[in-house]
Design a protein that fits this description.
The protein is built from seven helices and no strands. It has 137 residues and is mostly helical. The longest helix is centred in the middle third of the chain and has 21 residues, at 59-79.
Length: 137
C-alpha cells in the first residue's frame, strides 16, 4: 500500500564552526570533556564520550553521556523545525552528532539491560535515516 501523506521535510541542523573546530582538535577523553564543558548544547561532543565509555566497559557512564547528547540533539532539532518525526539525514554533517548519540544510547541501553529502550532507539535511528543505521552498525 502506498502512503499518500506527504513526508515531512528533512531537518538539517546548523553547523557550529567553533564547536566543530574544538571537537576536531580533541583526541583524548579529557579534551572531549573540555569541549563538552565549553559547548554543552553541542550534541556531537557527547557521542565520542559515550563511545569511549562503552569501550572502557562503563555502560552507565556511556548511557549518561549518550542520553545528554540525545536530549541536546532533540532540543536542537525542535528549534530547527523538527516536529517529532521525519528525516534527519546522515548525509548532512551537522546531524551526525545527534545520530551518533542515538546509536550510542541504543548500545548503552542494551548494555545495562534496557532492551525496550535499546530497540526504540535503534528504530528511531533507522526511521531518522536508514543510512545512519547502516553506517553506525
Amino acid at each position: 500500500m502506498q502512503n499518500l501523506l506527504p513526508e515531512p521535510p528533512a531537518t538539517r541542523l546548523p553547523a557550529d564552526d567553533e564547536a566543530d573546530q574544538a571537537l576536531a582538535a580533541a583526541t583524548t577523553d579529557e579534551a572531549f570533556k573540555a569541549v563538552a564543558a565549553k559547548f554543552p548544547a553541542y550534541s556531537a561532543v557527547w557521542a565520542p564520550l559515550a563511545t569511549s565509555a562503552l569501550a572502557a566497559g562503563e555502560p552507565v557512564t556511556a548511557y549518561a553521556y549518550a542520553r545528554t547528547g540525545y536530549h541536546r540533539g532533540l532540543d536542537a532539532l525542535r528549534r530547527n523545525g523538527w516536529k517529532g518525526h521525519g528525516p534527519v539525514p546522515w548525509s548532512h554533517e551537522a546531524n551526525r552528532g545527534f545520530l551518533r548519540c542515538l546509536h550510542a544510547l541504543s548500545q548503552a541501553a542494551a548494555a545495562i539491560g534496557e532492551a525496550d529502550e535499546a530497540a526504540r532507539c535503534a528504530q528511531f535511528l533507522r526511521d531518522s535515516d536508514p543510512a545512519a543505521a547502516d553506517a553506525l552498525s
